[in-house]
Design goal:
Elements lengths: L1 E5 L5 H9 L4 E5 L3 H10 L4 E2 L3 H5 L5 E4 L6 H11 L2 E5 L6 H8 L7 E4 L6 H4 L8 E9 L11 H4 L6 H5 L1 H12 L3 E9 L11 E8 L4 E7 L6 E8 L3 E6 L5 H4 L2 H12 L8 H17 L1
Parallel strand pairs: 1-2, 1-4, 2-3, 4-5, 5-6, 7-10
Antiparallel strand pairs: 7-11, 8-9, 9-10, 11-12
Helix pairs in contact: 4-5, 9-12
Length: 294
């Protein structure tokens, strides 16, 4: 089996590769020399391609695509031409123009883009009957202080990577859409900078969501945090239930990276994506709308 790591723009493909290396021959392409060196130091047997076209020329069985958001539509178009299964690391779009460009692509049923938290063991088995719910809440705690130092500036730029509201908010919106489905719209959004003054976006945000059946949802994005954690709260008439997701002793498993790659490898084997593109499109529309509103 041959898997192409097309781009190393965030930390995620490095984590993905640790699982994939147990199952497949790796091919990697990344234009930034330092990021590429970091990868090949850990995976010296990986084949290095000089371009995206060169990487895809290795006849991959699957592709993990991780490029800056403005580059996703064009890169995904090239990947789709191969017919290979593809996992697009989150988020697939951060602006309306990027989302419109994705909408013009012939995305097939072996393309998946999702927050890894959907596959976290602490959440994967959670089910909720909408008729029993009054409201839901997702709280995202993921520190963004590294961006304040100038690291990956495109992620912090609202018009490129969407900033904290999009890049971290995707985790909360993803979890709630996984529970309640894609019939959702943004009802409101707000943002603030409470601690990291140099940021171009924000370090704190909130989104209000409404599903077609009337359930209301809230996503809290806390980019100032001592530790990474995520919670989902279900409010019913007579009870409140909370599920917590943390890395624990094995973050690759605990945060859902391993489960995500297991799902991707099943797609490589011919299975459809377990995350319908309709859900991914709904998540991205909420995030883009929040960026526009805030």
């Amino acid at each position: 089996m041959r898997i192409v790591l097309a781009g190393l723009a965030t930390s995620h493909p490095y984590t993905d590769a640790r699982t994939l290396a147990r199952h497949a021959e790796l091919v990697v392409w990344e234009p930034d020399a330092e990021r590429l060196r970091r990868f090949t130091d850990e995976h010296p047997s990986a084949k290095v391609a000089q371009s995206l076209a060169g990487a895809l020329g290795h006849d991959p069985d699957g592709v993990v695509l991780t490029v800056p958001n403005p580059e996703v539509p064009a890169a995904l178009a090239r990947v789709l031409e191969t017919g290979a299964a593809c996992f697009v690391n989150k988020p697939g779009a951060a602006t309306r123009a990027q989302l419109d460009a994705l909408d013009r692509l012939p995305v097939h049923d072996r393309v998946m883009s999702t927050s890894v938290l959907r596959f976290a063991p602490a959440f994967a088995g959670v089910r909720a009957a909408p008729d029993d719910l009054l409201a839901v809440r997702a709280t995202v705690r993921h520190d963004v202080g590294l961006w304040a130092t100038g690291y990956n500036p495109w992620q912090d730029a609202p018009a490129e990577g969407g900033g904290t509201l999009v890049t971290m908010g995707v985790h909360g919106v993803e979890l709630l859409v996984a529970l309640l489905g894609p019939d959702v719209r943004l009802a409101g959004a707000a943002r603030s900078t409470r601690h990291y003054g140099p940021l171009r976006s924000e370090d704190t945000g909130v989104m209000a969501l409404r599903w077609g059946g009337g359930v209301l949802g809230t996503v809290e994005v806390l980019g100032v945090s001592e530790r990474e954690s995520y919670t989902v709260t279900l409010h019913r008439r007579e009870s409140t239930e909370t599920f917590s997701i943390e890395g624990g002793d094995d973050p690759i498993r605990g945060l859902g990276y391993e489960g995500t790659i297991d799902a991707f490898l099943a797609m490589v084997g011919g299975a459809p994506s377990p995350v319908p593109w309709e859900q991914t499109r709904a998540v991205l529309d909420v995030l883009v709308s929040a960026r526009e509103r805030a």
